[in-house]
Every structure is written in structure tokens, then in C-alpha cells.
Amino acid sequence: MSYKWTEGYLRDKNIVDEDEFNREYNNHKGAINGGLDRDNLPVDSVGEDHLKAGAFLAYDLSSPNDLMVQGLDTLSSSPAFSTWDDRLSGWVHNTSQKSTVTTQEGMLHIDFCCWFSMLTNSPAHVSLENRWAQMGILLNNNFIVKTNKLWSYAGNVNINIAVPVASGPQQVHIAWRSEAPPSGSTMSNGSFAYGGGQLLLINRYR
Amino acid sequence: MSKISNSNVLIGSTASAASANAKFSDVVTATNDIDAANVAYQGIDTKQLKDNYLIVRRGYVDNGVTNATAGVAYNMVKDGSFNSGAQAVNHVGSTAASTGLLLDFSSNPLTLKDGDMLRVWHSCHLYKHEYGNFISGAGGSYAGNVFYACATYPVWALTPAFAASGTTPTGFESFPGLSTSWVNTTLGSSQPIMIQQPDYSGSYNKRGYGIALYPLHGTKIGTSEMRTRYTGGSTLNYLHSGSDLTVYAMRVFFLGPLQYHRYNYGGADFLSFTASNTSVGANFNNAYISHGHIGFMQMRGGKV
Question: Is A50 helix (H, G, I), strand (E, B) or coil?
Fold first, then answer.
């Protein structure tokens, strides 16, 4: 706790003792030189102009460009989906969809939103099947949240999660998977696509 | 810097009133310039803060769900009706005075400062559309073997002259980072309306964000009605940099039916959601949105 200010009283209105003066003066000096805190500062005393930029949060927002860039044969195919040749089964960790930030100790809020489209019934597929896809967010290569299985052929993914983090570098990225190919598929058949993805990281300090 | 740096009075030295005043004048100087050097580590508490700086402003529009059994009809962009364009999601619900999914800041514009984060989220419920034969039947195939979807997306007005009612996009534009023709309504005749990717001139693998997609499959009620009953939504984040920016309104627009595919126009390839220019698209008449909402949050106090 900082020094409590008291009204000084100089005996006989004169300074007669250097030590006494120095003691009183150094108390004031110590409080001002880095000792001010909630006990000294008045309520509602800190306004917008007093706050340093970035005093509370750190942001990291992926660029407005699309995040899914791997596996899309963008110019030669229509529609532009990843194919079974890009991924046949299991999770796809797209290294181009990575945000790396240095956090302070506190909470890391992660928000991801994108649209997706899935080829469950197209000329490329010979059978009609309900198929699913799934997406997730990884922090330092560990899953921290996954969607349910997405059964619709089009829609949006909105994922939010807040996790406690320590100080230091953190890596966040997106992963996805879809059901194995239906019977009759070929390696060049389209599978899954997502786009318009924004990955937002908000580090709220302790 | 406002620390006091003078030294103590030395033993045996003269401590006159004048020299004492001179020392305390340093205190006066320091207290006129209190900064981080004066305040203890973690020395400021919530009660010292005058305002809420994490969330500067927030708000929402909720149109209620009072018309959930009917919805409001929106014309689909069909083959041969390319100029229909996007439509503002307007008068959702049964409230006659509703202006739809509109955040109107005209009486108190939103000011974005350097480093501000603006988050906008919206959601709509697509009740039905009028192409019941989109699916041939239970377990059946999709008409045309092409997947169609509808889309809604937020836009903002940076001018006070915007259309607060009606369905026109007057005064509204896409968010920065997206091409100004995010919704391109200026293509030539017989060309589809598209939601195109930003910066398409340099790369073809970039697409717009903030778009909510609505699949058009559902329960077939009849040849002219498919009950989709689907709620879609999205979140758009915008990080402002530079000088102050004034926002007068935000609104949600609707477009459909769309296909996700590569489209070539004028020798350029677009990977985009493109309004139908096939005969299948002509079968989609109206889409019905029964309710929705839009909200926003302006955050400050952060750094990139």
C-alpha cells in the first residue's frame, strides 16, 4: 500500500532538523516515485486520454483473405473444392491457416467464422449419400474445440472458445476433416471447401 | 517522466524556507505530470477507470419471431432477372414499423479510432422457398445436380445518405478488405449477380467473409414449397487502422440462389458465389425469411 498523505506540521514554522525534514519529504517522494496506487488515486480519475494504447488487450486478426488455400485447384476446376487427392481421410491441418502470437498471462479468446460447402451430391459422385464434415481449432497443436459433424451441404461454422494461456508464444490454427469418399469416387473428385474464414485472437490480460 | 530526483537536505546545511519550498516545487511539478513512472505495478483498479474501455459501444436489433409461420418474401435472383440484385433484409417479423436488420447510428454515428475492433454478427431464419421440386423426393437427388444456397451478409454506410427503409442498397458498401464490388451488380446483361472474392485481380483463391450461407434443402411440402427451416449466421471482424472513421449504419442484405463455383467473365476467373444463370435457378421464386437479428460490438484498448 502506498504512503498515506498527512498534513505536515513544521514546529514553530521553522525547519530545525534535517532528518525530520528529509523523512517527511522522502515519504512524499517515495509515494510519487512509483508508489501511487488505488489508495491514492481518486475514483473515476483515469479517462480515455490517460490510457496507453493496448493497455487491456492484444488482437490478432487474420487477413480478410480466404484462409483455405491448400488443395484448391482454383483455376482449372469448377467448383473449386479440395479433392480426394488432397486428403482422403483424417484431419487436415492447414499450415497456411496459422496465427502465431505472443501472449501475456491471461485468457485467450479465439473466434473463427467461415462458410463451407460440401459435395455430397454432384456429377462427380455416383451415389447419393449424406456426408459430413467437421472443423476444429488447435492451440499449440492440441484440439481445444471441435464442431459437431456438419451434415448440411452448405452453411457456416462459428466457433468461439476462451482458454487460459501463459506468457509466451502461442500458435493457433484450423483443421478440418470430412467423411471418407463415397463409393465410385475418384481421386480428382471434389470433396470439401470453406472460405471467408476469419481467425480472431483476443488476449485479455490478467 | 515525472519522478522527483532532488536529493535530501544534507546534515549541517542550511535549510531555509526558500530551499524547502524549492524542494516541494519538485513535488508540484511531478504531480502535474503523473504517468506510468508514478503509479505502482497493478496499482489501478476498476474503480479508477472513468468509463468502460474494452467495449466502447454495443447494440443489436432483434426483430422478434412473431411471424415465424409465414416469413417475409424476397425475390430470388433468377435466370433472366439479373438486375434484381441484392435486397436488404427488411421488415422481418410482423412489426409494421420495423426497418429490418438495420443498425441506424445516424443520430449518434459510430466513430472508429485507430486500433478499434468492430465485430458484427447477424443471423436469419430461412423459413421456406418456392421450389418444392429442388429435391425430387425422400432420398432423392437435387434438381440440376447443383447445390444452391442463399446468402446474407452485412454491409455498412459511411455516408449519412443511406436507405434506412426499402430494399435498395443505396449508401451501403462492403467492408474494407473486400472489393468494392463485393456484390457485383454491374456486370453486363445476361451475366449473373455474384458475391465475389476480394482482390480477385491478384489471386483467385480469396473469397469474401462475413457471408452466411443457407442451404435450400428441406421438407417438401408441395411443388411450390420447400420448408427449409434453417437458421444461418456469421460474424465479421474488422480491425480499423488510420484516421477516425464514421459509420452511420449497418444493414444485412440477401442474395440468392447462388452457386459456389468458378465463373469466367471478361476473360477473368472468379471463384465466387454466383447467382444462377441456369434454367434450374429460374424455378426458385421467393425465399421467406421469418426472423433475424444483427448485433455489433466496438472494442478498444487492444493492440495488434
Answer: helix
Residues contacting A68, CB < 8 A, separation 6+: A82, A94, A97, A114, A193, A194, A195, A197, B205
Residue A83 and residue A137 in one domain:
yes
From chain A residues 2-21, the ones with a CB under 8 A of any chain B CB are 2, 14-15, 18-19, 21
Give this prediction's pTM. Answer: 0.79
Closest CA to A108 of A137, A136, A135: A137
Q: A114 contacts in B (CB within 8 Å)?
A: 209
In B, which residues are within 8 Å of A60 by CB distance? 304
Determine if the peptide bond prior to A182 is cis (ω within 30°): no
Cell digits for A141? 497443436
Q: Show pLDDT as tens, one digit a residue, over chain B (304 residues).
A: 467 777 777 766 666 677 777 777 777 777 778 888 888 888 888 888 887 777 778 888 766 545 556 777 777 766 544 445 566 676 554 444 456 788 899 999 999 988 888 999 999 999 999 988 888 766 666 776 567 888 888 888 889 998 887 766 678 777 765 543 344 444 444 444 556 544 344 434 344 568 899 988 888 899 999 999 999 999 988 888 899 999 999 888 887 787 776 666 666 665 566 665 566 677 888 888 888 888 999 988 666 5
Distance from CA of B96 to the nearest CA of A (A): 30
Let me know whether A88 and A26 are in one domain: no
Task: Evaluate whether residue A179 is within a structural domain.
Answer: yes
Counted domains in chain A = 2
The whole-angstrom separation of Cα B113 and Cα A31 is 35
> Does residue A181 form part of some domain?
yes
| Angstrom distance (rounded) from CA A21 to CA B21 | 12
Look up the domain containing A186 and give its range: 57-205
Amino acid at B115: G
Task: State yes or no: ipTM above 0.85.
Answer: no
Q: How far is B267 from chain A (nearest CA, A)?
A: 12
> Closest chain B residue to A73 measured between Cα atoms?
B205
Closest CA to A89 of A178, A171, A152, A158: A178
Partners of residue B176 in chain A, C-beta under 8 Å: 64
Closest CA to A121 of A113, A132, A109, A129: A129
What is the DSSP pairing of strand B302-303 with strand A57-61?
Answer: parallel
Distance (Å) from the C-alpha of residue A180 to the closest C-alpha of chain B? Answer: 20
Q: Distances from the Cα of A132 to the Cαs of A85, A120, A186, A198, B300, in angstroms?
A: 18, 8, 18, 22, 39
Residue ranges of domains in chain B: 1-45, 55-299
Among B50, B211, B217, the strongest candidate for a mutation testing the A interface, having the largest count of A CBs within 10 A, is B50
